[in-house]
Design brief:
By secondary structure, this protein is an alpha/beta fold. The protein has one domain: Ribose 5-phosphate Isomerase B, Chain: A (3-Layer(aba) Sandwich). Helices cover about 45% and strands about 15% of the residues. A 5-stranded parallel β-sheet has the order 2-1-3-5-4, with helices on both faces. The protein starts with 10 loop residues before the first strand and ends with a helix.
Length: about 160
Amino acid sequence: MSRSKLFAFMKIGLAADHGGYELKNQIRTWLQEAGFETEDLGAHTYDAADDYPDLVHPLAKAISEEKLKRGIAVCGSGVGAAIVANKSKGVRAALITETYSAHQGVEHDDMNLMCLGGRVIGPELARELVFAFANAQYSGEERHNRRLEKLKSLD
């Protein structure tokens, strides 16, 4: 699967706890094979005793500080990752389980961090979600900008 030239500049950050460690590594490979640059913020080794806030927060912080434009976080269900990620100012994270929301979340809501459940989705669906998210572009339509400004005012 190839990416558009529009995203030649995009680096996608990755993070996962033990529940998403294997899927994160697969995602990194898929993205790199498609020409995306990735930044793996951990976990770098499997540790069944690690905690998702310790691993997802650095990714959310990098997005909040605009060091990364987008990220993908994976934990067992994806729920914890989404909760942690949304604690950081400017991060718009969502648990994604189907392709429409993977691209529509970016196109309409400028979602910048997609959360996946490593224990609840299979690799083929995960691959579709990753590329729907990575290849999506924010629409910039007036109604979406208006809503995004309202959301930003809540930070």
